[in-house]
Every structure is written in structure tokens, then in C-alpha cells.
Design brief:
Chain A is α/β, with parallel strands linked by helices and 474 residues long. Chain A has 13 helices and 16 strands.
Chain lengths: 474, 474
């Protein structure tokens, strides 16, 4: 863990351990009971091994768990058993139909001018190449825009190489700039006549892992095979291209779609003492890509919401409304679980007081933001103050919610974001290297403390925040 | 690059750029011409891109170059052309017969209690498993000694798992403690009845790369398949074993030996002006494992000795004796080039005034040591002083020489070691991740400056060091 984060955590832990509850910020003192309860939750969270133990077990006993795979079904059973063991109520599996896809064997190499095998992996959902593979000349683009700008037949019979370098950033903003290449690139390339697409992995760092992730073929265009090169391999391809001679590339992918399969959203609750029908939803997704162990994406998120709910379940008195943990099925390959949840609970969405999702690694949390009604912003301020001792800054009403919350956001459910430090997240994201050893137990525990704070506060507010106006920015 | 190394380099560079030659250490002033020449070499080396350019070309145009492979043959041609382009004399390929081995497909997974695929790779020279693979229970050992201690049939039908954690160290000393597991482990395991061996990679860091390296089967024992697990994968296997239930593992390796092939030592020289028959040998090895690009191991070494020789070749006056660059064939899989060199030049070994090898990454150099006759140690002191402005400390007469120098050391050729900082070397060594991006151009240039200093000094000494007594410690 980088030294800066070390310091942040140490400061936060020290502050919590020495401050009696009465010294917490003034605006929260309107409810000293709430403040004391949350201070206690934070202290217990920072000393609690539940999350790291859950994550160790998930990665050791299950590992990669692509939606609809045998490991995904095992993960569903594992999660339901774990929620029950944590003494959550109403533990259940809500069935979700999921698309299935398998990666199969894959191979890529430069054929000319200087033959060399390169590390790559298919984008999620990519079609296969012909069984014998394909060989074609590579044409390089530095952005999706520059690919879009060429004439419609410019790439006839060629391979488009999208060679954009993702920027490292604490808030992960480099990903937003890179992801469209992965999702839209293959169809844009196909619209120009390309027979395959390669991209520099949407990744920071420089290790020899190819980073996968879902692509989406547009209707009415040829579906061409698409793969991501590891960063050092994109460097090699770039260097051969820079020398000026035509570069021929061989690509063979065996990936294919299977029939739809069955998975489940796994749910557990802390039943509210006064308003049990009102829901504070703590989301994460249980599925992972097939490459790594899904430790950061999103085993950590599962562990965080599970451990936070457990701490609240053990309070002498439950909060006013119900806290619902939802471990969504198949976030990675089409948000199946998110859509199924919104469909199944359609009539209850108006009673969802708040939703949050943990899907950005293992912490520490450095940023808090809401997506609340403008008239409710004052009501979020005490929550921000309760999070501040954990080293978390408030970013106002700029929240967006995780991908699994899109259907809830679309109907105006208030959202809160606890954003983890993403400086190194994309070194590992969607690659083989997303494994348990990348998780710092203290950062994970701080994330649990933040999540417990948010969950308890939202579940204990006398009235829930108003519905959020659904505008064009949704 | 870690900040500490940054500082070391900055200090060294600053010292060189501001100090006129006359301010170099007093003991060297006995020959102000020598001191001035070496100061000039160092300054030019630190500003020279030759080494990094050579390394970029080698990794982009050739890449992995396992002995006897088509890429190895290309590398030989490339190196001979590069030495000629650097204007070295007597550029030649001295043929070397090399053993050949191919890795083939490989697969490993835990079958029970919790199935999960793991990342592994065959040790160099491993035999294959049966085509259908093998499945057996895993028995864990923390050291070669604890494996040696069990009864002779203790592992009948089982897989031995050598789970030693390699220590990170600047001098690479953790490798010496780990390498015997890789070289001797399979035969020790076989002597106990094991049908396969797995080991935690001889690696520092925690990325999902399996680190290969040569194993040696002992005569008279069954040859069992052997593979290294990536560090995070060894963690997973360890965790499942720690839970107490028997762990079954599936292993499939297709690796196999091929008929011997042909490679070459590639040689180039700066002809000495007074004693051309006396040789200062600058060695490195041209071959690499088949996994990475061989950037650190040992493309960097090749680039360092080539660039250092070029700088000396461009001096107005060549040094007294001949500097000979030797890029050895097949260091990794049996030291074929080293043996062939000693055989071919047997009659000239007595005229080898000094030998050094660069085979420990891309720098910076932090340590200088000799293996000279005890009566000559005073004669090494001025050289140590000339290296000091580069941030290099003297470690006296503790030198060993690289692996390719073993045959020379055995006949008493004086050795000098310039040891690179190895703190991070074993994060990459023998893995897919040994690629060009891991090299810091400034550290590489500092290594060239050190190599040029050593080479010129040794070639310019009025008389060569005495032969080194060949004792039991050889």
C-alpha cells in the first residue's frame, strides 16, 4: 500500500480511537444517540476481520465466477450461506437469467515484419475468429474519434488497433475516457470495413496482463472479433508500427456464446424496527470476470456490504428502516441482476429510501457524494460530518451510483456514493491479477466503517430523503 | 524506479558533471591520462542512448529467444549486425550446439475440495505429464530440507508442493536460497515417490506470473513433471491446504525435448594497441527464456557490454589490450555457450586478463567486487575509486562472476563483478513480465558508465592481474 494511503488510514484510525463520541462535529449533536451509535460502529468496523475473512474465503473457495458458470452457481450458494451465518434475516436467492459466454483458447502474434507472440485476451462477448485464425494488416488509431473520422471502407480487410493510453487517477476518471473504445470500438471498426479490432488494455500500470471487459456490438453491423493487448504488448505493436513497414497480425479466438443460464441475486436483511417496508439498499455484485479471482472486482464490495450489515445486525436496537444487502448477479456481462431486481421489486422501489453500491475495489474510501433532491442537501451534511473522521471528504451532490443502481436511479431512488481510492485499481481490474493479495485489510476495514455509517444513518433518518427528480442527465 | 535509486543516480550524475578530472580521488592521480579518459567515458555513457536503443530493438524485433529456437537464430544475426554497426572489430559467430526444449500447452487446477484453475508454468526441461494429465493429492513442504527428511515412500503417488517464500533483497540473496528447490526439487520429490512437483515461483512481488527456470534431473531417479505456481496461486493452494481437507490437483504439461540445435556465441572486439592478444572479456548472454521478452535477463546485459565497448572503440587511442564482447549462447538451459567458448579458446585462456559478466538486470550498479590474486588487491583500489563517483561501493575481493564465467574462473582468470541493484529484479525474472518497460534508461546508462570504466581500466593496466589461485571454493 502506498505510503500516502497508509497515513490517511493511520490518521483516521487514531482520530476514532481517541475521540469520545461527544467530540464529533457539532451539527450531529442534535442526536447524541445516533452519533454514539455510529462512533461505536466505526470503532468496531476498524477492528473487525469479517470483511477480509469473507474475501479470503470467496477467492480461495470459489475464485473466478463468471455469470452462469459452475463457479457462479457455487458463489450463489456460498453467499447465501455466508449471509445466513452473519445472522442476516430473510436470506434468499432471487433467480436471474444470465447470458453466457466462454473465452476459450486465444492466440495473437505479429507475423511481419518481426514475428513475436503477444499477450492478449478477448473482450467479453467477442465472437470467435475463423477456427484457423485470421491474418491481416494492422492500422493504428489513437482514439475512437480518429477511427470514426476515416472513410467507410478505409479498413477493408484490416485490423483496427485502438492505441489509447489510459491515465492513472484517484477517481478512476481515465476509465471513463477509455471504456467507450472497449464497448463501441469493434462496431465502429466494423463500420469501416475492419475484420478484427485490437485495443491497448483499459489499464494503468505496465504488467503483462490483458484486461478484458464487455463489448457491445451495434445492430446492423458485422460482428468482428475483438481483443485487448497487455500494455507491454501494445508497446511492442506500437513500436513495430512506428518503424513504418506494414505490420501483419495473426489472431485466433475461440470465444463463443452459450445458451442463457441461471444465476441469482443473493439478498439478506436487517429488519427495520419502525418502518420495515422502507429499504436502504447496499449493493455489490457477486459475479466476476473469468480471468482473475474477482478480489477487487467485486469480491471486496460484497465483503464490505456484508460486514457492514453484520455490524448493524448486532446492535442492541435495529435502525428504523430495513437494510437490505443485495449481491447482484451478472453485473459484468449485461447488468442482468440489476434489471431483474428492479423488475421483481418494481412495486417496492418507491419505498427504497436510499441505494448505494460498492464496486470500485477495496478502499480506502476517500469521497462521499449524494444524488439527492436539492431540497434535501442539508440533511446529507451531518452524514458527511460523521464520515469525516474516517478521512472521507464530501463531494456534495455529485453522486452517480454504481452500474447495478441504474434502474433504481432511473425511477428517482436517492443514491449515495462512497468512492474508494482508485489510484491502483485499474492495474488489476478485469485481469488475471485481480487476486486477494492486492487487498489491504486496513483499507477494507475502513470501507466497512464508512459503509456501516452510511447504512445506519440512512436507515435511522426520521424520514427518508425525497425522490430525486429524473432529468435528462439520468 | 524507487525514489532511493533516483537519488543515487542524480547524485552520481551531478558529481560527474561538475567535477573536472583533476578532482577525482588522489590514488588515481598517478596516471592523470587514465583518470581523464575514464571521466570522459563516464560522462559520455551517462548521456548515451546506445544501450537503451539496442535493448528496445532487441525486444521489439526479436522478443523471446530461447536457445535453438528460430528467434534465437534471428537474435544471433541481429547481434552480429549490431556489433558491426557499432564498429567493433572481428565480429563473428562462434557456433554452439544447444539442447532444445519446448514448453507446449500447460494447465493446472485444484480439483478438490474447491475447484479453481491456477496459473503455473513448467520448469525448464520438465518432462510432460501423460497426455490426459495427472491428478493426485498435494503434500506441502516449506523447504527442500523438510522434503528430504521424509521417508522414501512417503509421497508415493502424490504431488510434492514446495512452498518456500523467496525474500526480497538488494543483492538477490533470496534467489540463492530458493534456486535449489527449482534445480533439485523434482528429483528429491521423485526419490520420495512423488509423481509430480509444484513449487511457489522463485520470485519476489505478487503478480500472477509463473517464473520458470532450469531444473536438473538426477541420474537414476524417475523424471517427474515439475511446474512453478505464480505467487498468488501458491497462496490459494496454501490456503486450501491449511483448511485441512485433502487437496487434489490436476496437472497437464506438454513440454518436451527436441533434438539438439545450433546457436552461436556472438563476438566483437576493440583491438588492443600494445598487447592485442591479451583479452578483457565483457560477457552477457543473448538467449532468454521463452516467456518474456528477455529485457532484464539478459537483453540489458547485452546492451550494457555492447554500448560500453562502443564508447571505448570511439576513443582516439585504443587501450593497451583487447576488449572482447562475448554474447553467450544458451546460458539459461545449460551454459552451452560458456562451455563452448572455454573449449574453443582453451589455449588463449591464460591470456584472458580479466572477465566480467552483466547478467543481473538493468542497473543501477551499486557494488563492485573482484576475484583477484591476494597480492593484487592494491591494484584494484584505484578502480574502486574511479567507480565511486557513479554511486558504486567496493565489496573487496568477494566477487564470483556470472554463470557464463564459471569455466574461466575454474582456470584462474581474474574476475570483476559490477552488481546491479536487484531489489525488484526477481519480480520479473524468468516470467512473461520481463519486458522493455521495466528498464529505466538512466539506470541502464549508469551501468554502461560502470562497465566502460571497468573495461578500460582493465585493458589499460600496465600488466594484467595475476592468475587467481583455484581452490576448494571454486
Amino acid at each position: 500500500m502506498p505510503r500516502r494511503l497508509d497515513r490517511t488510514l493511520a490518521v483516521a484510525a487514531a482520530a476514532l480511537l481517541v475521540l469520545p463520541a461527544g467530540t464529533l462535529p457539532a451539527r450531529s449533536e442534535s442526536d447524541p444517540g445516533l452519533v454514539a451509535t455510529i462512533a461505536g460502529l466505526q470503532q468496531r468496523a476498524l477492528a473487525d476481520d469479517t470483511a477480509i475473512d469473507l474475501l479470503r474465503r470467496l477467492t480461495v473457495e470459489i475464485g473466478p465466477r463468471f455469470a452462469g458458470s459452475p463457479a457462479d452457481r457455487k458463489a450463489v450458494e456460498w453467499a447465501a450461506a455466508a449471509l445466513a451465518a452473519l445472522e442476516l434475516a430473510n436470506v434468499r436467492r432471487e433467480p436471474v437469467v444470465v447470458p453466457r459466454w466462454v473465452r476459450g483458447a486465444e492466440e495473437g502474434r505479429i507475423v511481419a515484419p518481426h514475428p513475436q507472440p503477444l499477450v492478449l485476451t478477448a473482450l467479453g462477448g467477442s465472437v470467435a475468429t475463423p477456427p484457423e485464425g485470421l491474418t491481416a494488416e494492422v492500422v493504428e488509431f489513437d482514439s475512437l474519434e480518429s477511427l470514426e473520422a476515416v472513410a467507410d471502407v478505409a479498413l477493408a480487410g484490416k485490423i483496427a488497433f485502438l492505441n489509447h493510453r489510459m491515465e492513472r487517477a484517484r477517481d478512476g476518471s481515465g476509465y471513463s475516457a477509455t471504456r467507450p473504445i472497449r464497448s463501441r470500438g469493434p462496431s465502429v471498426a466494423a463500420s469501416k470495413g475492419a475484420i478484427a479490432m485490437l485495443m491497448r488494455s483499459a489499464a494503468t500500470g505496465s504488467h503483462r496482463f490483458a484486461h478484458t471487459g464487455a463489448t457491445r456490438y451495434a445492430e446492423g453491423l458485422p460482428r468482428i472479433p475483438a481483443a485487448a493487448l497487455a500494455v507491454p504488448d501494445a508497446d511492442i505493436l506500437e513500436a513495430q508500427l512506428a518503424a513504418g513497414a506494414p505490420v501483419e497480425f495473426y489472431l485466433a479466438l475461440e470465444s463463443r456464446r452459450l445458451e442463457d443460464g441461471l444465476s441469482a441475486n443473493v439478498v439478506g436483511e436487517v429488519i427495520g424496527r419502525e418502518r420495515p417496508a422502507e429499504i436502504v439498499l447496499l449493493g455489490a455484485h457477486l459475479d466476476s470476470w473469468d480471468t482473475g479471482s474477482g478480489a477487487l472486482d467485486d469480491g471486496a464490495g460484497c465483503a464490505i456490504v456484508m460486514a457492514a450489515a453484520r455490524l448493524i445486525a448486532r446492535l442492541p436496537k435495529p435502525p428504523r428502516r430495513t437494510i437490505r444487502v443485495v449481491l447482484f448477479a451478472n453485473e459484468e456481462f449485461g447488468l442482468s441482476g440489476a434489471r431483474a431486481y428492479a423488475e421483481r421489486h418494481r412495486d417496492a422501489l418507491a419505498r427504497h429510501a436510499l441505494a448505494t453500491e460498492s464496486d470500485f475495489g477495496a478502499g480506502p474510501i476517500w469521497r462521499f457524494a449524494t444524488r439527492w433532491h436539492p431540497l434535501d442537501l442539508d440533511r446529507a451534511a451531518p452524514l458527511a460530518e460523521l464520515l469525516a473522521p474516517l478521512g472521507i471528504d464530501s463531494f456534495g451532490n455529485t453522486g452517480r451510483g454504481g452500474a447495478d443502481l441504474i434502474p433504481l436511479r432511473q425511477v428517482g431512488v436517492p443514491i449515495a456514493d462512497l468512492t474508494a481510492d482508485g489510484t491502483y485499481y485499474f492495474d488489476y481490474h478485469h485481469s488475471e491479477d485481480d487476486t486477494f493479495d492486492k487487498v489491504d485489510p486496513r483499507a477494507l476495514a475502513q470501507s466497512v466503517a464508512a459503509m456501516a455509517t452510511l447504512a445506519y444513518y440512512a436507515a435511522e433518518m426520521p424520514d427518508p430523503p425525497r425522490r430525486v427528480p429524473v432529468g435528462e442527465t439520468q
